[in-house]
Amino acid sequence: MWKIINIVQLLLIVVVNIPLILIALVIGVFSRKAMKWYAMYIWSKFLLLIVGASVKIEGKEKLNKDNSAIYVANHSSHFDIPVLFNKMGFFLHFIAKIELKKIPLFGWGCSMVDIIWIDRKNKIKAQQSMHEAGEHIRKGLNVISFPEGTRSKTGEIGMFRRGSFMLAQQANVDVVPLYLKGTRKLNPPGTMSFRPSKVTIVVGDRLPIEGYKNHSPEEFANEVQMIVKKMEEEYS
């Protein structure tokens, strides 16, 4: 029964997503700000409705969209981004691998909303991208990063890579840890199956960058990973 339901859901995602992205591209020609609003409140809402996701946020009072930061979260599902778009209340510019830019429509749309592309295979280009990201953040953009680098296959929070934390130090901006609960059940990694799920975004305390300037990026990454793991234990 679930296989049939999942096939229908997958078809709906394709059928609905294509016109939604096309509409977004048209909007983006006239206003990138309007396109970001559309991604947050229209595109994400339709996708989450199709797969049966119910999303809530804990600790929303800790958010401050006017004080730019790098938000870091565990990564468990293709739906992590729509979940965050749906409930954060402001647009998060995510860091993505350059390969995704080649996906028709999706890649074009991401470029129009100032997504930060990283070429992991080319160290020089990766450093240039991180420098550009730092400039964007200093101008007031809020960024979301998944420092595990890939979706967790086991459900356990993996090692946090140093890139996001090096960027925070270079850009002199705070880090805000997030824990995403329930997205793995919604869409397990490596599958095209979906299950209705209650998803919770847990917002941790803002970490002022002043307290981490003397840390190595690796130490900074390890400390934040432990914070997110503690959030996981608290909400498990």
Share of helix, binned = 40-55%
Question: Based on helices, strands and strand pairing, what is the structural class?
Answer: alpha/beta
Proper CATH architecture: 3-Layer(aba) Sandwich
Shape: globular
Task: Give the mean pLDDT.
Answer: 89
Number of strands: 7
Major sheet strand order = 1-7-6-2-5-3-4
- Strand fraction equals 15-25%
The number of helical elements comes to 8
Biggest β-sheet, characterized?
7 strands, mixed
Pfam families: Acyltransferase
Protein name: 1-acyl-sn-glycerol-3-phosphate acyltransferase
Pathway: Lipid metabolism; Phospholipid metabolism; CDP-diacylglycerol biosynthesis; CDP-diacylglycerol from sn-glycerol 3-phosphate: step 2/3
GO molecular function: 1-acylglycerol-3-phosphate O-acyltransferase activity
Question: How is this structure best described in words?
Answer:
- This protein has helices spanning 2-30, 32-51, 80-87, 106-112, 123-138, 163-171, 183-186, 217-235, and strands spanning 53-58, 69-73, 93-97, 116-118, 143-145, 174-181, 197-203.
- The chain is of the alpha/beta class.
- The protein has a 7-stranded mixed sheet with strand order 1-7-6-2-5-3-4, sandwiched between helices.
- Strand 3 (93-97), helix 4 and strand 4 (116-118) form a beta-alpha-beta unit.
- Helix 1 (2-30) runs antiparallel to helix 2 and helix 5 crosses helix 6.
- It is globular and about 55 Å long.
- The protein starts with a helix and ends with a helix.
- The relative contact order is 0.17.
Describe, in short, the structure shown.
Helices cover 47% and strands 16% of the residues. The chain has helices at residues 2-30, 32-51, 80-87, 106-112, 123-138, 163-171, 183-186, 217-235, and strands at residues 53-58, 69-73, 93-97, 116-118, 143-145, 174-181, 197-203. A seven-stranded mixed sheet has the order 1-7-6-2-5-3-4, with helices on both faces.
